[in-house]
Amino acid sequence: MRKDYLIKSITQYIFFFFLGAFLGYLWEVLLFYVQDGVFCNRGFLYGPWLPVYGVGAVLMLLILRRFQKHPVKVFFLAVLLGSFVELFIGWFLAQVFHLRYWDYHDYPLQLGGYICLYSALGFGIAGVLWVCVFARIASHLWKKIPVPLQRIFLTLLILAFLFDCAAALIFPNAGHNITFS
């Protein structure tokens, strides 16, 4: 019984990773479309996902779910957690691939151009919505899908994601409006 629970839990978190990565992709594409008036496939990968958002979504659930009845706590902890994830991943990409996928140098209260107050507050709001509202709804809907279909769906997503990662390691997505010098 415990092994079955663990497998269901792992598959649910994999689902949350891809859901967060996809919602983050939609958010950034929409944001840049509104700002610049053009479609821009944001991020290191080519598919419709931004793993930094997937990592943030899973970490927020793992760490903050126990506070879901306390949205003010979730807000402040999500500010810290989201900022840490963005700082670490931004720094890592700059060190390993010599690319910057975001730059907050022109924003007030920024740190190294990797994080700023503006994005931190956005993480707080997104964290409250994700942990206190949307993850519960998504979990409920996910559980309605038969387990064999869940596994097929996730297997296909993982394979596509791994293929995308392999392609991006060879040819990183660094086109116009994607990276900063």
Automatic annotation (TrEMBL):
<feature type="transmembrane region" description="Helical">
    <location>
        <begin position="151"/>
        <end position="171"/>
    </location>
</feature>
<protein>
    <submittedName>
        <fullName>ABC transporter permease</fullName>
    </submittedName>
</protein>
<dbReference type="InterPro" id="IPR010540">
    <property type="entry name" value="CmpB_TMEM229"/>
</dbReference>
<keyword id="KW-1133">Transmembrane helix</keyword>
<keyword id="KW-0472">Membrane</keyword>
<feature type="transmembrane region" description="Helical">
    <location>
        <begin position="117"/>
        <end position="139"/>
    </location>
</feature>
<keyword id="KW-0812">Transmembrane</keyword>
<dbReference type="Pfam" id="PF06541">
    <property type="entry name" value="ABC_trans_CmpB"/>
</dbReference>
<feature type="transmembrane region" description="Helical">
    <location>
        <begin position="76"/>
        <end position="97"/>
    </location>
</feature>
<feature type="transmembrane region" description="Helical">
    <location>
        <begin position="12"/>
        <end position="34"/>
    </location>
</feature>
<feature type="transmembrane region" description="Helical">
    <location>
        <begin position="46"/>
        <end position="64"/>
    </location>
</feature>
